[in-house]
Amino acid sequence: MAENGAPRGRSTRMTGKERREQLVAVGRRLFAEKGFDMTTVEEIAARAKVSKPIVYEHFGGKEGLYAVVVDREVSTLLSDLETSLFDQRAHPRVLMERAALAFLSYIDENEDGFRILVRDSPVSHSVGTFSSLLTDVAQRVEEILAAQLRLHSYPPKDAALYAQMLVGMVAYTGQWWLETRKPSKEIVAARMVNLSWYGLSALQKKPELGAKREGTGGKREEPGESRG
In what residue span(s) does the HTH tetR-type domain sit (predicted)? Predict the structure, then answer.
């Protein structure tokens, strides 16, 4: 008993929800630093200052914790990208700019989360991976491209292929930019869209490789859309 009858202070115990969030934060950091395979339950427990059974109680093991971390990162990134592509009335180039900037902004603000997403996931974790997320994004981009291809009398079936190319370019460039952080994300987004947009605006309807094209005199089809 303290002086004047006042009880001694006690450290505040976390609620179950608070403890779970603490473990998610600790796991997120460790998975980003070391990867799934090199992270152990012992390390997670030690950094959170709890016993191993606490980790198992909340997540059943590191696989369960990893799944929660990845699913949250996927939801955050996909939500940001879907928001950037929401306005159907916006010009396709504007949508591409918004999506590219949203992707880079996620990387900038969630470095640990992005590092986790681009690492190889455990075999037991087949959903919520970076590749499946990019597939979802590519499907959304495909819808936008298909509408534009139809508008300019191009084969809409090519939309899926072009969508994969565009999303792959953004994803790979994002991984490179994570390590360099130069130039600014705004400049990187503008350059990516500049390359992809003017490539799309000058599409040939039936592109061929150069060797085969030489047999036709090398004549190039006119762009389906002028560069505005």
Answer: 17-77
DSSP states along 60-86? SSHHHHHHHHHHHHHHHHHHHHHHHT-
In whole angstroms, give the CA distance from residue 134 to residue 120.
14
- Residue 96 — pLDDT band, cuts 50, 70, 90? confident
Among candidate residues 31, 55, 33, 29, the one with its CA nearest the CA of residue 42: 55
Bigger pLDDT: 2 vs 189: 189
Number of H helices, E strands in the chain: 10, 0
- pLDDT per residue over 169-180, tens digit each? 988 999 999 999
Is the pTM higher than 0.85?
no
- Crossing angle (nearest 10°) for helices 130-151 and 159-180: 130
Residue 25's nearest CA partner among 127, 112, 128 is: 112
Mean model confidence pLDDT for the chain: 83
How many Å is the maximal CA-CA distance in the chain? 101
Sorted by where each starts, the structural domains of the chain and their CATH numbers stand as 70-202 (1.10.357.10)
Q: What share of the chain is helix, strand, coil (3-state, %, to 5)?
A: 70, 0, 30
Distance CA 116, CA 128 (A): 12
Q: What is the CA angle 125-131-133, rounded to 5?
A: 95
Structure tokens at 76: 């955050």
123: Cβ–Cβ under 8 A, 6 or more apart, which residues?
Answer: none
